[in-house]
Amino acid sequence: MSRLGTLGARLYRGEVGYDFVGKRKIWYGISILITITAIVGLAVRGLNMGIEFSGGAVFTTPNTKVSASDLRQTAEDASGGHTVVVQELGRGGLRIQISELGTKEALPVQENLAKELGVETGKIDTQLVGPSWGEQIASKAWQGLAIFMVLVVIYLAIAFEWRMALAALIALIHDLTITVGVYALVGFEVTPGTVIGLLTILGYSLYDTVVVFDGLKEASKDLTKQTRFTYSEIANRSLNSTLVRSINTTIVALLPVGALLFIGGGLLGAGMLNDISLALFVGLAAGAYSSIFIATPLVADLKERDPKMKALAKRVKAKRAASAKAEAADSASDEEEAPDLEDAAAVPSGVVGQRRQPASRNRGRGRPSGKRR
């Protein structure tokens, strides 16, 4: 068995573990700092909305040797200073995207691009997107997100309890905020692919959290009938038992997404992959973090406020104090008996006494041996 597998088995049996729940204030502080950074980035820089949301025109050129920077300059001059985004396509063509460009303004841009490339105007494929279509997409996305959140809360409240539902909802909002904040800081374009990526990471984050919650539910059955562990300790044991599984799942999920983002979008220049791959990469990492460091410690915080759990914590504390006191008394009595035994075993110098012989060496002396002479 590998070292990671051995560690996972020991974590599952509770032989080793890390106190995630006990150090929850540290994780809360880190999450608050990251969330504030994301919100500040979103407020200062804002989101770079694609033409699907802001409206505009998309021009697709045939195979050309003209550089992307030259076409960008041509498009900016022809459009009157509108924001221009140029992406290289796999077949050697270019995709030129100009936001907030109307139908009348699109024709001069198309003609100037054809002139720069030395081709006919009809060879430049032009698509116009109205802002109303983007508004419909945004509205549908918000509706889908709201319905998803409501169904998640209802399901978790029924299957587990309301505290777990609330903790999972906070973890999901945490993941969304971080992902959107990273989008604002990086400046990547927000497209319908971004929305798809956001909805995908919600499902993944929820799945990892539910696995931990299910183990916690099983481990906390009849918890108040014992006095060995508190609820926070049981929650920490449940979290440690699924820790290696969560790490493995996250790594396996991040590897292909990272390949899309860094190799496909970065090295190969497939910019169309950046929107969905960035949302998936950041969301998967944030979801794994929140399921371990946010959701379960938050459930333990809420549960420890229950009067039954408070009473359990007092009983556990009292039992451990009594056990510690009994162990201290036993160790003290052992220390007192040790000098007495040493004094009894020691023989003072100058005093001669009868030496004790083993019983086996005196056995049979003074008695007939039973032999006849």
What are the key terms here?
single chain; 373 residues; alpha+beta; Alpha-Beta Plaits; Multidrug efflux transporter AcrB transmembrane fold; four-stranded antiparallel sheet; 13 helices; 7% strand; translocation; membrane; SecD_SecF_C_bact; transmembrane
Describe the fold and architecture.
The structure is a single chain. The chain is of the alpha+beta class. Among the domains are: about 55-130, Alpha-Beta Plaits (2-Layer Sandwich), CATH 3.30.70; about 135-310, Multidrug efflux transporter AcrB transmembrane domain (Multidrug efflux transporter AcrB transmembrane fold, Up-down Bundle), CATH 1.20.1640. Helices cover about 70% and strands about 5% of the residues. It contains 13 helices and six strands. The strands form two sheets. The protein has a four-stranded antiparallel sheet with strand order 3-4-2-5. A two-stranded parallel ribbon has the order 1-6. Helix 6 packs parallel to helix 8 (about 190-220) and helix 7 runs antiparallel to helix 8 (about 190-220). The chain starts with a helix and ends in an 11-residue tail after the last helix. Residues about 350-373 have low confidence and may be disordered. Belongs to the SecD/SecF family. SecF subfamily. This is Protein-export membrane protein SecF. Forms a complex with SecD. Part of the essential Sec protein translocation apparatus which comprises SecA, SecYEG and auxiliary proteins SecDF. Other proteins may also be involved. It comes from Streptomyces melanosporofaciens.
> What is the CA-atom radius of gyration, in angstroms?
36 Å
Strand order of the largest sheet: 3-4-2-5
Please give the alpha-carbon distance between the first and last residues: 76 Å
Helix vs. strand class: alpha+beta
The H/E string reads HHEHEHEEHEHHEHHHHHH
- Kindly state the number of beta strands: 6
* Rounded mean pLDDT score: 79
Task: Profile the largest sheet.
Answer: 4 strands, antiparallel
Weakly predicted, low-confidence segments: 349-373
- What's the CATH topology label of the domain at 134-312? Multidrug efflux transporter AcrB transmembrane fold
DSSP strand content: 5-15%
Subcellular location: Cell membrane
Transmembrane segments: 26-44, 141-158, 165-188, 194-216, 247-270, 276-300
Biased composition (Basic residues): 362-373
Domain Protein export membrane protein SecD/SecF C-terminal: 111-304
